[in-house]
Amino acid sequence: MVGIMNPVSREKLASLSNSVKFATDLGPKLELCRQLKRDLLEEDAAALSEFLSHIFDLYSDPSGPVRKLATEIIGEIGVKHLEFVPEIAPFLITVLEDATPAVARQSISCSIDLFRHTLEKTAIQGLHSSELDSDLESSWSWMLKLKEKIYSIAFQPGSGGVKLVALKFVEAVILLYTPNPNGSSEPPPNEGTPIEFNISWLHGRHPFLNVGDLSIEASQRLVLLLDQLRFPTVKSLTTSVIVVLINSLSAIAKKRPAYYGRILPVLLSLDPPSFVIKEVHVYGANNALKNALLSCLQCSHPSAAPWRDRLLGALKDMEAGGLAEVALNQVHKVNGSVEDEKDHSSVIKEEKPMTKACDAAGSNVGRKRSGTEDSSGLAETGDVSGKRVRSTPSVSEESTKELNRNTSMSQGDISSAQSTTRKVDVDTGPVQQLVAMFGALVAQGEKAVGSLGILISSISADLLAEVVMANMRNLPPTHSHTDADDELLEDMCIVGSNTQAKYPPSFLVDVVSLSSTFPPIAALLNSQQSVPNEIVKTEVGEEVDVMAGPNSTVAYAGMAHEAENALLPGMEKIDVPTPSDIQDVGNLESGIPGLDSSFHYDGLSDAQAASSLVSTDLEDTSQEQGTSFGGKSPLHVLPSISIERSEELSPKAAVNDSSGVVSSTATSVVSSHPFVLPKMSAPVVNLSDDQKDDVQKLAYIRIIEAYKQIAVAGGSQVRSSLLAYLGVELPSELDLHKLLRDHILSDYINHEGHELTLRVLYRLFGEAEEESDFFSCTTAASAYETFLLAVAETLRDTFPPSDKSLSKLLGEAPCLPKSVLNLLECLCSPGISEKAEESQSGDRVTQGLSTVWSLILLRPPIRDVCLKIALQSAVHHLEEVRMKAIRLVANKLYPLPSISQQIEDFAREMLLSAVNIDAAEITDAEGLIIESHKDSELEKPSHEHQSVSSTGKDISAIFHQSETSQSGSSPSVPEAQRCMSLYFALCTKKHSLFGQIFIVYSSASKAVKQAIHRHIPILVRTMGLSSDLLEIISDPPTGSENLLMQVLQTLTEGTVPSAELIFTIKKLFDSKLKDVEILVPVLPFLPGDEVLLLFPYLVNLPLDKFQAALTRLLQGSSQSGPVLSPAEVLIAIHGIDPERDGIPLKKVTDACNACFEQRHIFTQQILAKVLNQLVEQIPLPLLFMRTVLQAIGAFPGLVGFIMEILSRLVSKQIWKYPKLWVGFLKCAFLTKPQSFSVLLQLPPPQLENALNRTAALKAPLVAHASQENIRTSLPRSVLAVLGLSPESQPSSQVQTSQAHTGDTNNSEKDAVAEISKESSGAS
Amino acid sequence: MKFRYAMVCSSNQNRSMEAHCLLKKQGFDVSSYGTGTHVKLPGPSLREPNVYEFGTPYKHMFDDLRRKDPELYKRNGILPMLKRNLSVKLAPQRWQDNAADGYFDIVFTFEEKVFDMVLEDLHNRDQVLLKSVLVINLEVKDNHEEAAVGARLALDLCEQIEAVESWEDSVDDILICFENKHRRKLLYSISFY
């Protein structure tokens, strides 16, 4: 609502400031302040003057930001209305003391603005009138006070952040107080023009501002600033203060070159390492210093010039040489554009191609320094030229200077070019040195041949390749070997001018061939022709120096031409106007007035005479060389490529060449012309980019083809480095990688594919890892990936699975990108991506897995990823794949302590996932697993997804089926096995894991249980009985009884269980698990009496289990024999009292039946023995008669024995046991007629009872008894019962017996039925 | 947040944007710039980079590259990077042209070359305000992974700086502490607006 009011009235402003005052929250308060500021600045001076105090009040606010803002507002008001300065300045002085540094800094910020404006106004007013109004005067005096105050802050030791700004303030004041040489020295015609204030406007005609005084003050302050950086004050400063000081001073030096001489000595004498206390930031101060010096170097003011050399030297010491040269070049560019545009343009053009050739030459000048010292060498040369200037203060000083500058400039170019190539090369430092070394050796001639050989053989193939490539790159395709030849001939002439006779032709040939492969060396030889005489001359005497200056220029110009030749193909500047260059050189030479030009030319002609003399001598040899070289060229693959192009390009080069030579060695060229001329007739063809690409490509193909042949010749070690280098270094559009790849893959073994691939990969990798810009990194990484992947795929597809190439390649490649890992994954888990590729053989899986294994061992960084691949494979749906992977994981990987936990976790999660019945849950769990094992890997989410969802679908389908059909073998068993196999395999390695299976078992689905049961026998047998297993057995989780049973069975199968196991099982039976079943497996190993005690429990088991137990008991163990005899078993069964033992009678009868079923064990004799014993028991066992009946049913031959038993039963008054009595009668009936005698032994009442019960017996018994011999032996009472007694009343008897007949008939039928049933059951 | 931050790399694509994105998420007042003359993105080969002018919207680059070769640019991470960038701001901005964006308190650079360029640019501006600006160089390799690491380091450092009343008084301590903690070398300078 405040913002709407416009224009602002005073009341509103007041209320606004009040609301600021009373606002409590910082945020709104600041917002109000800003609002206030906006409004205030629109006010006029009158309004403000009233209001100023309000704002001063704001400053009393406790919060720093508000005070800062208030200061800012006041500062801005001051700038806008300078008349308030007398009020504002004291305020700012107080603010300087503010406890909050930010506020104090704000005060300084405001002060400088205010100061500048006041000064400007004071100055300009003073210019226009000699009287200043008093307000302004007092303003100015206040500003001076303020300034002094800030000075004191700047120069008092260590006041932290405020000091930084105060120092900057000092810098600003110094700049204000000193004349700006670049600014206009006249004030702007009308006030208010936005032009930078310059103190030189004053011209000493100001009432009280005296330029001289101001200048003196500025100097004093500068001295103070400089003193801070001097030892030992500097030691007490913080790095930030040092940085600010350095920056400020360099800014002053740059803007006020007059102070160069005072500032630079201090900066140059700074040695950051020695003064920064907190050594970590030496680097920061160093960098600031470096930048400061660089910016000073760029200063083009004349007074800066004398410092350039020292600056360069210092920068070189700071290893910023390259930058320095660039900076210097820029300076020269500026100078050059004014002074000698033409010359410069030619030199600058050469910047790039001037590389090692010139470098080598340069170092030669500096008495063959090694590459790193090059720059200092150059600096020295620079120094020399500086001296020259001073030593010959002739009329022509200006022009000499100019020339010198040219010289040093081209030197600058050289090293800057060199530094650019350094940047491009991977590391050419040693390469440069080597090139120089080669050059030096070659230059020494024959005696160095041996050392050359040693040098070549002692450096690594890669390095040698780099050396060759370094040369290849720089000097260039235009140097066809024929050209080089010509040139070299000249070179040789001159080199040989002293010692020519000593060189046998063979050496010359060597050198020629060598230098055609090492163009820079050729150039070096070349340069020797001109450089040595220069050097000689410089050393001769001081007075020659003047002359040497131009001479060296000529030499460099010559080299420049060479470089231009190099430049031509590379830079595609075929149209460079060479003639003008030549002219240029001419100009240079002639443009040196006052020099001893005749002497100079004498020198040249000397050289010319010598060389022409020799060159004619050598003509014959050179022809020889030409031919012999031609013969050799096929071996030199590299030169031979260039022929193709050089035919188009070389003529131009040749022209330049010759002209370059003309300029440097005058007439000696004439003699060499005949060699060059024929080639000049070839037409110049400008190739389009495409054509160039084609040429390059063709060339490369030729190289590759050549390699196919040289494989036989040996030395491929060296050569393959070169091939790899070429393939990578040439522009990548040409798809040379593909050519190279095709070459490698066309015959991996014979082409040393592995080595070559690795070389290429390392090159690409190096490029990708190099600290270069983003896109080259990415491109190289992409090329790397493509290359490796293509090779890996081909290896996979073309080589037999047993081949180790793939594994070796992946093991040794610098890094493995994700796509390669995916390839590996597909190999290990076939079908993960392409379903069509089911036919992949198991051998491939083995190959993949063994690769993964070796990667896990060899490459710790990608161990997790590889492990994940192996684990994925270990839960693969194909059993064959899975088993292979599991073998790897469990046998090889699991024992590795670093990853065992990970494997265990994965296996456990898979196990748990199998247990979750719900299909959805399974999917979830799997997803989780995959995720948890994914970690950083984001690869192929689509595939991952696919596989998960497909398994999920499978599972749900399975689930449906198992729901509908309860049949045991539901199809999810394989699925369960898929998930669990790994865990089982781990169990065999670590038995304690087995417990988890017990826990899982209780909640597992039927299918899972089945799967578990399938595994257990193998698993437990493999594990054997360990303490871990015993522990698990001693306390099985509820619900796992079946599993426990199986485990125990497996444990006891075929072996004698240990006492521990038996003890554990018994203890378990006694304490926790009352199920006798668990004892069954160990029954044979228990003592007989214990078993007898257990017997009722056994009988109570389900029949099949009882039978199993029975078998075990009867078989016993191999050592101790049967625990119980069959007889004992039967007796034990009969000893069971259903009521007492709480066992259903049915169970007991079933147990009996089970015994009778095994007739081969429970034989006739055994039964007889058992019956004999049982019949003696009192009371008789409940089932006795039943057993007797069964015995008869099973063994009819026992009838006689049974009769004995029956008669013993009669004597035992069997009729007293009603249940047995029924059985007795049944038995008697069944065994008629043998039983008649027994029946007749019954007392008459019982006999009657018997006959009444079993009427069917009566007639045959009567018939039997009617026999004479029997009848006589029977007592009367019996006969009476039988109705054989004369005094009997048969009618009534018959009637009753008739009445009973129906019953007995029935019961007889029943009995028969029963027996037949039983016997049928037994049979 | 007390200070205004600028993240600067060469193309305002990878390192500076990674840091920009992260700091923005953490609520910092942050901008980002590049010091190069153009925005260069990797192309199919080294010789054919994709070159754009500063100010070309990220969306435009994204569409352009997606049209050219979606596979390549997805694989080398350029498309995802551009997608991230276009969610942060409209287009890459050039440091040297940012005078209108106001004054920063802290400038982060991720390469020494960029650091030097920023400093040079700052020195070439009229330093009239005497408002100090801290320029810190944290050397970060120009790839996606390192950029992410660098951004986290930058965030950590920003939080340290943000925690003090005025960095001018404690910059040395903060940086030394940071260097010891992360074993990274820092380079810093102080300039003025």
Automatic annotation (TrEMBL), chain A:
All copies of domain Symplekin/Pta1 N-terminal, residue ranges: 101-317
Region annotation Disordered: where it falls in the sequence: 335-424, 612-635, 1286-1323
Pfam families per UniProt: SYMPK_PTA1_N, Symplekin_C
Compositional bias per record (Polar residues), positions renumbered to this chain: 405-421, 1286-1305
Record field: transmembrane: 1183-1206
Comp. bias (Basic and acidic residues): 339-354, 1306-1317
Coiled coil: none
Alphabetically ordered keywords of this record: Membrane, Transmembrane, Transmembrane helix
Domain of life: Eukaryota
Entry keyword annotation includes Membrane: yes
Domain Symplekin C-terminal, residue spans: 1075-1253
Protein name per UniProt: Symplekin
UniProt source species: Hibiscus sabdariffa
From TrEMBL, chain B:
Catalytic activity, EC: 3.1.3.16
Cellular location(s): Nucleus
The keyword Flavoprotein is annotated on this UniProt entry: no
Gene3D superfamilies per record: 3.40.50.2300
Catalytic activity: O-phospho-L-threonyl-[protein] + H2O = L-threonyl-[protein] + phosphate; O-phospho-L-seryl-[protein] + H2O = L-seryl-[protein] + phosphate
Assigned keywords, A-Z: Hydrolase, mRNA processing, Nucleus, Protein phosphatase
Chain ranges passing through the membrane: none
Source species, domain of life: Eukaryota
PANTHER family: RNA POLYMERASE II SUBUNIT A C-TERMINAL DOMAIN PHOSPHATASE
Function according to Swiss-Prot or TrEMBL: Protein phosphatase that catalyzes the dephosphorylation of the C-terminal domain of RNA polymerase II. Plays a role in RNA processing and termination.
Family assignment from sequence similarity: Belongs to the SSU72 phosphatase family.
Annotated protein name in UniProt: RNA polymerase II subunit A C-terminal domain phosphatase SSU72
Lineage, highest ranks first: Eukaryota, Viridiplantae, Streptophyta, Embryophyta, Tracheophyta
